């Protein structure tokens, strides 16, 4: 079991990353020029929503 302690999303992350949050507040917001009417944008949105729905379904079935 000790092999898995350092792996995963929580491995290596500590609560001491508060300094990064402060720098995010100081940074100006980036403007994104995304054409919301473009077919590629619509396809990407549908793909993202599909994966999210699968994730939610799997998450709810686990409980």
TrEMBL record:
Residue segments, region Disordered: 1-41
GO cellular component, as recorded: cytoplasm
Biased composition (Acidic residues): 29-39
N-terminal signal peptide: none
Alphabetical list of InterPro entries matching this protein: Calmodulin_Regulator_PCP4-like
GO MF terms, alphabetically ordered: calcium ion binding; calmodulin binding
Family indicated by similarity: Belongs to the PCP4 family.
Protein name (database record): Purkinje cell protein 4
UniProt organism field: Scleropages formosus (Asian bonytongue)
Phylogenetic classification of the source organism: Eukaryota, Metazoa, Chordata, Craniata, Vertebrata
Gene expressing this chain: PCP4
